[in-house]
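Quick one: structure for this chain?
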Amino acid sequence: MIRKILIANRGEIAVRIVRACAELGITSVAIYTEADRHALHVKKADEAYHIGPDSIAGYLNIHRIVNLAVATGCDAIHPGYGFLSENPDFARVCAERGITFIGPSSEVIARMGDKTAAREAMIAAGIPVVPGSEGNLADVDEALAVAEEVGYPVMLKATSGGGGRGIRRCDDPDALRQAFPRVVSEAEKAFGRAEVFLEKCIVDPRHIEVQILADHHGEVIHLFERDCSLQRRHQKLVEIAPSPQLSEAQRREVCDHAVRAARAVGYHNAGTVEFLLDDQGRFYFMEMNTRLQVEHPVTEAITGVDIVAEQIRIAQGEPLAFTQDQVGKRGYAMEFRINAEDPKNDFLPHLGRITRYFAPGGPGTRTDSAIYTGYVIPPDYDSMCVKLIVWALEWEALLRRARRALQDLTVDGVRTTIPYHLEILKNADFRAGRIDTGFVERHPELVDYSTRRPPRDLAAAIAAAIAAHQRL
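Got it. Here's what it folds into:
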């Protein structure tokens, strides 16, 4: 049994894991760098240890983290998301030192982290993949030949890429020639590997992902799907569960694909299988995330399953607490990623001290965050500061609740994307559930919220009221 967990992460996900540990009666251990000395996860964990002065490097030092886990008597390490969560060497070193890694095996992480190997595994399992190169590209000439075969536009991708990095759309041969050395260079700098591959570009697809859980006793189930189509520069902004765009037949199809994918690679623990859905209703495997997702709370909201707690139970060898038939979905949930960014200035980070923070409450409302009044958002990390999750039985009720919760949410001292999300909620296509990955680019007017003038009749009414007041 796991009695003490070191959390190899920071921010809201570290706070989330601390809460799960508390409910399971497990001691939580936080780590922090100098920039995070006053962070919320440090204050909330049972124990906290300084991991080094370097802001990001401290969270990436495998041997220092594992040595600390051993020294402090930890049974397990939870990697959260980002940082080392999908690093196979981290999982391998944990196993070598007798520390339980809360996630899949290092072999599975390595296989699914290599996008060409993942494609090959899915093809062998009979799961549809986007047409493209059979493996890594040798040079730009091979890329041009494959692109000519599958047809433009194409996507050039880093084999070990993720998080929207190492990816370029190419609409013609000239664009591909220019992009090839850039993607190779970015892949080498960001991921330590210069390999790239090519796929046919599915123009403005829907991005559908399926949450799966798999234990060590042969059981694999899904927790239904999430719609992550609303993105900006390959970064998700809003996630919805279940997808308002799928029929029940499509839902069964994509969830079955995800379960078969997990079984095909011998997957254990929580994971997410991501798909693209084209305008003809065809699903294509995109990638598998071998970790907890940022957007896992919307799945928890519609199923009632504590995914982090299940991760821990699976890691300590317990069978899944329920079968597929016992997992149901109820209502709709939506997650808004609130970033400390200025939407009117090309979403540039706007960091600093939080002068006032108020988290909304009420039925079906949840906030996952690591900020508080007086906290200084450091420039060293991602700009996401709050995740707002809302749930309701019906879609229209969800939209109303989301608007109310966003209006209640207060983050003063920095500019955030809250006004931008409120504009999204007003959009007719979004309200009708018609979204795809090109939604943001098609609606540049969403950032004009602060320069819009009120309707003429309302402006006239305000002017008349002011004039009447002045006459008194």
